[in-house]
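Appendix B, example 12.
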Amino acid sequence: MRKRTRNRIKARETAAARRLVPWRAVGRVLAVGGALFATLCVVFWALDQPIRTVQVTGRFQHVSPGEIEQIVARQAGGQGLLTVDLPAVGRAIHALPWVDAVSVERDWPHGLSVLVVEQIAAARWGHDGLVNANGVRFATGISHVPAGLARLSGPEGSEAEVTQRYLAMQRRLSQAALAIAALRLDARGAWQLDLANGITVRLGRSQVDERFEKFMSAALGIVEHRAADISYVDMRYTNGFAIGWRAGRAGAFQRGHLTCPRSGERPCTDAWAGGPNAGDGQWHRANEDQYA
């Protein structure tokens, strides 16, 4: 008897709970939600139209707009204006060697707008590469190299360091109407640059910036007046620098044949221990192999 009573109570409670649920309101909400979803589907379909036009802008020297359009066609083929993967299109364009930056945007109602910024080569790297002003190597194995670029080289991973030093040195040298043709950093960490007039400047492994400034303040005068006679300038000396003359071109600066005090056989380089003018200092014997 008690069990029947409990069952009747549960049945009444369940019926009461059902009466509390606003089924009509729930139905209205579902109807409105379905209508909104259908509307969104129609709008999405209306906006996701096939891509018919591609507008490519930028200043082009090494990349052609036609090349960009072909990449867009491959990446966006069969996709609509809403479903196209814009980042993927941008990455494909950015993979071109001469592209520095790219922006891809939708151009309603049926197109894409692509803005391309080309790389600007600051120098050559190695035999067939290029680096920009940030020292980023962006092209290798290229067939056409812009004329007038200096050639830089160094161990793997040294591109940024070599490029920044090249740009700093070139700014200083341009004040004297000189230009760098090549700058090298070897595996031992020694620096050496070739000027466009054919003179090599040896800077060694330590105090590179200080030695370069010493070249600018002390050796530049001789270089400017005797460029055709000089083969190299060696700045790897504590209190001076050495000049290597071209064969038979020493002239008034030559002080005769010097013999290295230790070897007794190998000829040494004449070294200058004073300012850029002939009367400012004294020539002395110097074995360049003793200096780094």
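The chain has six helices and 14 strands. The chain has three domains: 2-47, 53-118, 123-290.
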